[in-house]
Amino acid sequence: MDREIIENFNPFDPRTEGEEFLLRHFTTSPRFKGWTIFEQPHINSMKPDFILLNPDKGIIIIEVKDWNLSSDIYENGGYIKGHNGNKINKNPINQVENYKNLILKTELINSVYLSEMFNDVFFGCVETVVYFHKATKFEAKKFCNASNKHTKIWTKGDIDYISNIDNKLNAFQHTYALSLIKSKLNHNGLLAELVKELTSNLQYSDYNYERKQPIKLTYEQEKLAKLQKGSIRRWSGVAGAGKSLSLAQKAVNAIKEDKAVLILTFNITLRHYLRDLCSQQFGIGSYKGERKKLKSNLTICHFHDFLKIIMMEHEIEIIHDEDDDDFTQKWINIINLYIQNNTIKNNLKYDYILIDEGQDFQGEWIRFLKQFFTNEGEIFIVYDKAQDIYKHGVWIEDSNQIKNIGFRGQPGNIKVSMRLPQKIVSLVQDIRNEFNIDAEEIKPNTNTQQSFIEMTKWINSSAITMIEKLDQIENQVEFLKETNVLDDITILTTNENTGVEIVKRFENKGIKTSHVYDKEKQKDYRKRRNEKWKFQGGTGRLKICSYHSYKGWETPNIILILDAPSTKYIEGNIYEGEYNEKNIFDAIFISMSRVKKKSLTGAYSFTCINYLSEYNRIEQVFD
Questions:
Q1: Which of 36, 156, 363, 440 is deepest in the core (most CB within 10 A)?
Q2: Closest CA to 49 of 57, 61, 60
């Protein structure tokens, strides 16, 4: 193959001199033979200037700047003076490296396999470059303060040097991908698979479309999914009512009308589930190529990643880490300050803003999001009052907290659970009675047949040593494996220490897992996030997850490990501390509410292995 260049010329946003210069060299230089080059591809509301891909060499993301750095408005460290004299940090290195991180961690399933093979080295499969068309190398490096960054700084001289095929390239200056014949990361074709996946995503290919029939919606779900232009609505529903399904169908209905759609969640892991659900509900399309709209018109993010995308696209410095106190409000304030004096980019304006698990959001966040709403479609929020585990309260029904959002009238409500088996619904009510919980009644779907392949167990257990406890857990997994594949089994935990030990037990036995924990038990949010982006369905792995992070998911087989959230393991012995009864109920309720029947047989199971003697009485409810 010579090269393939996918141009994306927009007459309303013409190319800069620097972009024209680069494109000309990409087109003519023999250095770029074998490469696929995308100009300003659209990927989940992000628009890098260029993405270069080669299955043997790797991926390069390039951001182009035609800035004249000799002007006095540019200051070292990435600062630009505004009209009012205030300095704004617009360091393009931050922008391009954030593109890399979000693309790797939210768009590519094969990133999971590369990261497991090469650990942190796998980040080298994508290299980042900032090209300054009107600056010297000295000016560019000084402006970016790039001495300790992985991102390469290129100027016109670099492009001329690279384009001459007779010149030997320096990997540290010109990227490893262009310098080496073949990347060491292409072990067993892993890099090639990653490149293929990203290429398919950028081309809006159907490579990952499973030919599943779209799920047929009930009358109530269809009513929710119907487009109601010019509205701002909220709709509550019990567990299993089909809120996520209705949201996905609404998104599909909108993008088929060429509307721009944004779906937001609070839960990082839920994003992958919603992406697959939208793909399924879209179907094969009414004409060839219609499924391209799933990429060009649809953005699915968890809320904090969306804030990052806003800052990246507008080159706003991200100055607060996610472990800072109240970082969410700080990010919102920074963005609001920018918007006061600047225009929001068109690719960040949406006709439909759809929010799942709305009880985890806050009223202030919705008021903030309205700035990105075109008023051409609707803002629609679904929520479940019974799953407010982040203690935000039912803000969405509080008249003070919903001021200036635009809701009219009372919230809608779905009381019937279409997914939860009748037996699970009955058990949930019995357990609520045991805990004296007054909550909205869940009504089962009485039009479905009861399955004869159902299992609900409450096992009161005790263990002195960690090994004894892990043996008990493994026995239950082995029992389920007799009639289920691993991908249909999920272990939910109330405690990260317990979750980590379960992960280690199965991985030591050669069983691959998807999990959400910091395996070093340091409660490092970065390490947790690093696992959460890998947590996806359809990988054929045993899933091990906190009950918090499994909200919105569903599976035929749940095993809940009910122990104190403060449980510790010291030299193989178990030590339990105090716990809050509300947290215990939340764990039981949310875990039970994630059960779904198998589509072919109706089979399902829920097992609770209880290590809290105070709740041994619950066993009688399951008899």
A1: 36
A2: 61
Tokens at residue 432, please?
């609520």
Q: Tell me if residue 293 falls in helix, strand or coil.
A: helix
CATH class label, 422-621? alpha beta
- Give the span between the Cα atoms of 244 and 336, in whole angstroms: 30
3-state secondary structure 299-332: EEEEHHHHHHHHHHHCCCCCCCCCCCCCHHHHHH
Vertex 433 angle, CA 428 and 435, to 5°: 95
pLDDT score at 527: 67
Average pLDDT over residues 173-200: 91
Q: What is the pLDDT of residue 417?
A: 86
Q: What is the pLDDT of residues 199-233, one digit of tens each?
A: 988 875 443 444 467 889 999 999 999 999 999 99
Taking Cα atoms as reference points, which of 543, 555, 481 lies closest to residue 517?
543
Q: ∠ at Cα 61 (58, 64), nearest 5°? A: 150
Q: What is the pLDDT of residue 1?
A: 67
Task: Return the closest-CA partner of residue 124 out of 64, 180, 175.
Answer: 175
Give the pLDDT band (50/70/90) at residue 524. Answer: low
**Length in residues, the chain:** 623
- CB neighbours (10 Å) of residue 152? 24
Instruction: Name the band, by pLDDT with cuts 50, 70 and 90, for residue 602.
Output: confident
Q: Are 439 and 433 in contact (CB under 8 A)?
A: no
Among 237, 217, 236, 238, smallest CA distance to 226 is for 217
Angle ∠(252,256,262) on CA atoms, nearest 5: 50
Give dist(CA 612, CA 383) in Å, integer: 31
What digits encode the pLDDT tens for the residues 24-83?
A: 999 999 999 999 999 999 888 898 999 999 999 999 999 999 999 999 898 888 888 877
Does this chain's domain 219-417 share its CATH topology with 422-621? Answer: yes
- Under a CB-based contact definition with an 8 Å cutoff, are residues 212 and 280 in contact? yes
Which structure tokens are listed for 242?
């089909």
Superfamily of domain 219-417: P-loop containing nucleotide triphosphate hydrolases (3.40.50.300)
Three-class SS state of 86: coil
Residue type, 613: S
Please give the Cα distance from 235 to 409 (Å, whole number). 11
From the CB of residue 599, how many other CB atoms can be counted at a distance below 10 Å?
9
What residue spans define the domains of the chain?
4-202, 219-417, 422-621
Instruction: Give yes or no for a contact between 592 and 432, defined as CB atoms under 8 angstroms apart.
Output: no
Residue 136 has a pLDDT of 95
Provide the CB-side half-sphere exposure for 348 (13 A, CA): 21
**CA dist., res. 606 & res. 589, Å (int):** 11
Report the chain's C-alpha Rg in angstroms: 26
Q: Side by side, which strands form the sheet with 3-6?
A: 3-6, 35-39, 50-54, 58-65, 126-132, 152-154
Distance, in Å, from the CA atom of 307 to the CA atom of 300, rounded to the nearest integer, reads 12
